[in-house]
């Protein structure tokens, strides 16, 4: 494969830190590189050096003649008085860019809901970021560098971007280097991984899943001081193999080696034990939403939503921006009042929210981390088992001893996010809402947070565009479609199919289904399919009720009746499997009828 660019003997130092020490890397035609590493270790700096935007102290970057390089960095550099139109397509004539399928796809995939003639100064930070990404992708480049491109994209946007990048160049053409904490996205687009750490860039074959395996092998052979990190990554690998097997089907992922490594690693969560502990802390009643509707300025956001949240439930919520996810969480948290219907909250509920704001840290900004944590409590019990001191919790969340003396105001964004989570856990809530919790966290810290949540015995509700996190920490997912909640036995994949379907192909607000007949079907065939579809729809409703009843049975069960709990778990698994089959058949029938 032809060489595109390379860095030879790169070194870079700041007064307080050596970033790179004699680093040599290269990018060839067809390379798709994902870059991982801890915050502050130099991932973004590496991209800027390779793209020619920053000069190293020593070494050089060489670029093949004529190579066109485009980069999306984290800085917002778009002029405020420029229009969206001009930023994306420049001075090209309308017939020129409108006739370009790639440009139309970029506009459709990234700029939905953004006025094309709006000035950039009128847009939100997230909208400006999407415009900057669209401006980059609407042009032709031989090499594309992307620094956190999934920020401000929802699940649909991340899926679109992954597919766009996979189709952007022919095989063995073009080069891509991407820095992101979105591990699902890394696995989708990258064929190789660079880990930036300790002043070096270490290459690994394959995407994130393959990187985890190889890193476990590396850590297993390392010194004993790496044992804690190794155990955490082995747990991550166990989930990749057991919880998301499709990710490990790539040829470069050595499945036999993975199986051997995780042979003695238990499942990431003991669901029965956690639900039993949650029931003992919460009782039978958590929060019930009964026929709730909410409207703002005459527009109905949620319609007749009924949701009985069970003790120990771990649920992910999906939906496009503006679908009502935050409104739904507000109903649960008590910050939003229902227009109609009723919200019933259990007497023992102690709820906490980890949201995108860090306002609660403002009043302790001048305090040292150690003092802040020391005021909370002397110990924290993990899943009803071992007790950890606040210092041990801080260590699990990546704080060094030196950082314990740091004032809160001097922490990085990622460190503040971790401290925020720690303070919430030390307050021991029994219902926890995570609203886009992945901001400012690198992949290692996300794994550490997930590890901590695995042993947290409470009810967990998560809204996130980070598909990996959503699938990793929750046991079931729901979508908000047309103001209604819909269970997703098929998970995020099913949601993407439903959200991509035309409105007529979705379950309507009235509960019925309306689809145009397929031209290739006879009248009798169409009536047969519609009859089966109605039957499947009714059965789906009954199974959903059965799943809700099963969760209620869990809450009412005797915690010491292990045989009974196991039977309930088996029955629940059977209902989940049936629901998945029914959803698949529903989608098949819908597609046949839509033609």
pLDDT average, as an integer? 82
Number of extended strands: 20
Biggest sheet, open or closed, and with what strands and sense?
6 strands, mixed
SS class: alpha/beta
Span between termini: 43 Å
- What is the gyration radius calculated from CA atoms? 25 Å
Strands in their spatial order, largest beta sheet: 5-6-7-3-8-9
**What CATH architecture label of the largest domain applies?**
3-Layer(aba) Sandwich
Give the oligomer, counting copies of the same chain as homo and different chains as hetero: single chain
* Coarse shape: globular
Number of helical runs?
20
Question: Might you state the CATH topology name of the largest domain?
Answer: Rossmann fold
- Give start-end ranges of low-pLDDT stretches: 248-253, 502-519
Helix content: 40-55%
Descriptive report:
- The protein is of the alpha/beta class and 595 residues long.
- 41% of the residues lie in helices and 21% in strands.
- The protein has 20 helices and 20 strands.
- The strands form five sheets. It has a six-stranded mixed β-sheet with strand order 5-6-7-3-8-9, with helices on both faces. The chain has a six-stranded mixed β-sheet with strand order 14-17-18-12-19-20, sandwiched between helices.
- Helix 16 links the parallel strand 17 and strand 18.
- The longest helix has 34 residues.
- The relative contact order is 0.09.
């Amino acid at each position: 494969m032809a060489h595109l660019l390379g860095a030879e003997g790169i070194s870079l130092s700041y007064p307080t830190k050596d970033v790179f020490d004699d680093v040599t890397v290269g990018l060839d035609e067809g390379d798709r590189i994902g870059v991982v590493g801890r915050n502050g270790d130099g991932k973004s700096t590496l991209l800027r050096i390779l793209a020619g935007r920053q000069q190293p102290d020593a070494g050089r970057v060489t670029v093949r003649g004529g190579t066109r390089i485009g980069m999306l960095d984290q800085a917002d550099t778009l002029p405020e008085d420029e229009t969206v139109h001009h930023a994306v397509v420049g001075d090209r004539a309308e017939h020129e860019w409108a006739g370009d399928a790639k440009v139309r796809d970029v506009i459709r995939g990234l700029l939905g809901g953004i006025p094309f003639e709006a000035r950039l100064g009128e847009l939100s930070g997230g909208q400006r970021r999407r415009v900057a990404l669209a401006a980059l992708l609407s042009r032709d480049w031989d090499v594309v560098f992307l620094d956190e491109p999934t920020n401000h994209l929802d699940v649909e946007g991340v899926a679109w971007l992954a597919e766009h990048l996979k189709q952007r160049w022919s095989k063995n053409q073009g080069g891509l280097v991407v820095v992101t904490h979105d591990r699902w996205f890394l696995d989708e687009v990258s064929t190789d991984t660079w880990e930036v750490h300790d002043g070096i860039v270490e290459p690994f074959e394959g995407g994130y899943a393959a990187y985890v395996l190889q890193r476990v092998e590396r850590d297993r052979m390392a010194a004993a001081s790496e044992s804690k990190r190794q155990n955490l990554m082995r747990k991550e690998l166990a989930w990749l193999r057991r919880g998301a097997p499709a990710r490990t089907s790539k040829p470069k992922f050595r499945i036999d080696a993975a199986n051997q490594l995780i042979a003695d690693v238990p499942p990431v969560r003991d669901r029965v034990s956690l639900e039993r502990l949650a029931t003992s802390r919460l009782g039978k009643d958590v929060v019930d939403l009964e026929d709730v509707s909410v409207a703002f300025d005459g527009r109905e956001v949620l319609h007749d939503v009924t949701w009985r949240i069970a003790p120990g439930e771990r649920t992910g919520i999906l939906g496009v921006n503006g679908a009502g996810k935050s409104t739904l969480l507000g109903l649960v948290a008590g910050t939003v009042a229902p227009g109609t219907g009723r919200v019933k909250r259990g007497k023992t509920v102690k709820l906490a929210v980890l949201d995108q704001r860090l306002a609660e840290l403002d009043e302790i900004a001048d305090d040292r981390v150690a003092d802040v944590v020391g005021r909370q409590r002397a110990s924290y019990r993990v899943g009803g088992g071992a007790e950890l001191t606040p210092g041990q919790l801080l260590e699990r969340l990546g704080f060094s001893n030196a950082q314990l003396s740091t004032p809160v105001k001097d922490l990085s964004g990622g460190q503040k996010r971790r401290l925020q989570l720690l303070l919430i856990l030390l307050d021991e809530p029994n219902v926890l809402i995570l609203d886009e919790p992945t901001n400012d966290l690198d992949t290692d810290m996300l794994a550490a947070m997930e590890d901590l949540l695995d042993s947290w015995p409470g009810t967990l509700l998560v809204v996130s565009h980070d598909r990996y996190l959503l699938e990793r920490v929750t046991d079931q997912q729901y979508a908000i479609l047309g103001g209604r909640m819909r269970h997703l036995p098929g998970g995020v994949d099913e949601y993407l199919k439903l959200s991509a379907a035309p409105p007529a192909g979705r379950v309507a607000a009235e509960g019925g289904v309306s689809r145009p007949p397929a031209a290739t079907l006879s009248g009798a065939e169409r009536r047969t399919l519609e009859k089966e579809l109605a039957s499947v729809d009714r059965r789906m409703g009954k199974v959903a009720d059965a799943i809700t009843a099963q969760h209620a049975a869990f809450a009412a069960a005797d915690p010491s009746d292990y045989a009974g709990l196991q039977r309930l778990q088996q029955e629940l698994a059977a209902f989940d499997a049936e629901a998945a089959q029914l959803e698949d058949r529903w989608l098949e029938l819908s597609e046949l009828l839509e033609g």
